[in-house]
Amino acid sequence: MAIVPRPVTLEPRAAERRRARTRRARRETATAWTFTAPATVIILGLGIIPVIWSLLLSFRADDLVTPGRWVGLDNYRALAEDPNFHTAVSNTLVYAGLYVPLSLAGGLALALALNRRIRLIGLYRTLVFIPFVVSATAQGVLFSFILDPQFGAANSLLHKLGISPQGFLSDPDQALYLLVLISLWSGVGFCVVVFLAALQDVPPELVESARLDGAGRWRVLRHITLPTLTPVGIFLLLWQFIQALQVFDLVYVTTKGGPLGSTTVIVYFVWEQAFRTFTAGYGAAAAYVLALALFVAGAALRLTRRRQSARTEAAPEAAPAVLKEGAAR
Amino acid sequence: MTHTAHTAETAPSAPTPAGGAAAWKTTPVRRPPGRRLPFSAWHLVLAPLALGFALPLLWLLLSSVMTDAEINRFPPALWPEGIDLGGYRYVLGNAMFPRWFANSLVVSGVAVLSNLLLGSLGGYAFARMRFAGSRLLLGLMLATMVIPFQLTMIPTFLVMKRLGLIDTLGALIVPALVTPFAVFLFRQFFLALPREMEEAAWIDGCSRLRVLFSIVLPLARPALATVAVLTFLSTWNDLTWPLIAINHDTQYTLQLGLTTFQGQHHTRWSAVMAGNVITVLPVLVAFLLAQKTFIQSLTSSGLKG
């Protein structure tokens, strides 16, 4: 009944709407910035700024207390000649060279063994994984007790077997290898979990049809299971390598880099330079060398991931071809 | 080997709710239902292996209830004659140990809560709002995930020193308040949620904050659990940063306390082991209670997809 007044022109309304839209957008921007501000301040403030600061530090002689002075590339030059740094690098590489392949092979073998439906399997998986959540500190304390030359259960056991007592972590020839073993005890569980998750992606139809075609267990493993696991394996390889380069806590708790520098790894070296001998600039330079190695590993990871995602898209067609090839032989 | 927060090297992918937990509970091997094997030969392989992994932890538990006489004789006893709680009594009666426990609890508790809050706030803004500079900001945050902690630890120490936080729990809490991982994980999770309900509430005049708290977060339980679990694991287990940031033993965390405890009480191994049990216990309990989420968050935090 009421007569709705019709607008005479559209112009003012459009302008108003536009203004309202910009107002809303501005308000949205303000809200968004408030939402992200705390994260931005903390993450960028303690992420980006220290990276640059660290780079500047690495060009200085600095003890963290008195004002330092600019020394240019001297720290890096000194690192190149420092026998202690060389030892740290080679110890880290030995550690990584043993830990990475062993954790992968062990993880794969265990995952294959644990990938079956039998009673108690959940318990077995849990027991294999549990050491992973135990902190490196607790592991270190526990194993320095077990491996204590005097009071340790390990020597007690060797005694029962008639083997002479060992020095273990106090023996420069054994310490680094024992650290690898301790890390394996806790680190294998992670590989097992990842491989177990990847085993889910093995297409059961493929396995069944291969079986029907007369392929044995070994062939199925070789031609179907392992190719499916390859991408995850490459990921784990680099992931574990990155972890291995950063090992520190376990070393600090068990051996403090000793005996005779036999377990001084790169991060331990960095920590020692910065917070023990107060040559922070030198430590920062060593940290930059480590970071460079990690960036190379990270870039490799990125590259393989990109290539691998391209490959998995092609997988449905590729997989039967592999199967055919396997059956034809 | 303490992971995630500081050392996450790769951009994590969106959580895959099916992946990890499914792998933990079931196997792809399909057996006709009803056909049950009474005994599998695999038990002969798996049982000793699993026991081997459990053995050091079993030994931890056993030695914590041994008497010092049992530990100190040679060769030491491999099995306690009775349960002796002297080690626990000594540790809990120690003036410092309960305090370290409380410190660890405060640091981890604040870190978990604030990662959930600040991470979801940031993640929500990146997932649902358009604002100038959002892409650059997100890119920068993600870039910090590939920075190894060792590179930033010296300047972070200097920053904390300028803030006057060194030797206080603040120095442990501030860097752990929010991680790029939490922001990114929440963003990915929110992107996968349908927008319709939020939009309806928003049009009805609900504020963004209210939409987040009353609609989005109740749907985001898996993401909340993942962030909580990984934050707790990395803060509770961390040693490197407390070692740098804390000097005075009243501010120690459990992990840090344990390392000095070991040196001071070499003769009282039972006390050291009791302390170790108390340090490991919270993570172990958390793991056993939330096994599914734990496994899921590990496999989804950068592995699948």
Write the layout of secondary structure elements.
The complex is a heterodimer of chains A (329) and B (305).
Chain A: H1 11-45, H2 48-58, E1 60-61, E2 69-70, H3 74-81, H4 83-114, H5 121-129, H6 136-146, H7 153-160, H8 175-199, H9 204-212, H10 217-245, H11 249-254, H12 266-275, H13 280-328
Antiparallel strand pairs in A: 1-2
Chain B: H1 19-25, H2 42-64, H3 68-72, H4 86-93, H5 97-128, H6 134-144, H7 149-162, H8 169-173, H9 180-191, H10 196-203, H11 208-219, H12 221-237, H13 240-245, H14 254-264, H15 269-289, H16 291-300
Helix pairs in contact in B: 1-16, 2-15, 4-15, 5-9, 5-12, 10-11, 12-16, 14-15
Family (chain B): Belongs to the binding-protein-dependent transport system permease family.
Transmembrane segments (chain B): 41-62, 100-124, 136-157, 169-190, 211-233, 269-290
Keywords (chain B): Cell membrane, Membrane, Transmembrane, Transmembrane helix, Transport
Describe this entry's structure for a reader.
The complex is a heterodimer of chains A (329) and B (305). Chain A is built from 13 helices and two strands, in the order ααββααααααααααα. With 329 residues, chain A is mostly helical. Chain A has a domain at 95-261: MetI-like (MetI-like fold), CATH 1.10.3720. In chain A, α2 (48-58) packs across α13 and α9 (204-212) runs antiparallel to α10. The longest helix of chain A has 49 residues, at 280-328. The model of chain A is unreliable at 314-329 (pLDDT under 50). Chain B has 305 residues and is mostly helical. Chains A and B meet through α1, α2, α4, α5 and α6 of A and α1, α2, α5, α6 and α7 of B.
Order of helices and strands of chain B: HHHHHHHHHHHHHHHH
Which shape of chain B, going by the Cα principal axes?
Answer: globular
Question: Would you report the number of β strands of chain A?
Answer: 2
Global Rg of chain B: 23 Å
Mean pLDDT of chain B: 83
CATH topology of the domain at 95-261 in chain A: MetI-like fold
Count of helix runs of chain B: 16
Beta-strand residue fraction of chain A: under 5%
CATH topology of the domain at 105-252 and 291-301 in chain B: MetI-like fold
How many distinct helices of chain A? 13
Main structural class of chain B = mainly alpha
Query: Could you estimate the helical fraction of the residues of chain A in percent?
Result: over 70%
CATH superfamily of the domain at 105-252 and 291-301 in chain B: MetI-like
Oligomer: heterodimer
Distance between the termini of chain A: 88 Å
Give the rounded overall mean pLDDT of chain A: 85
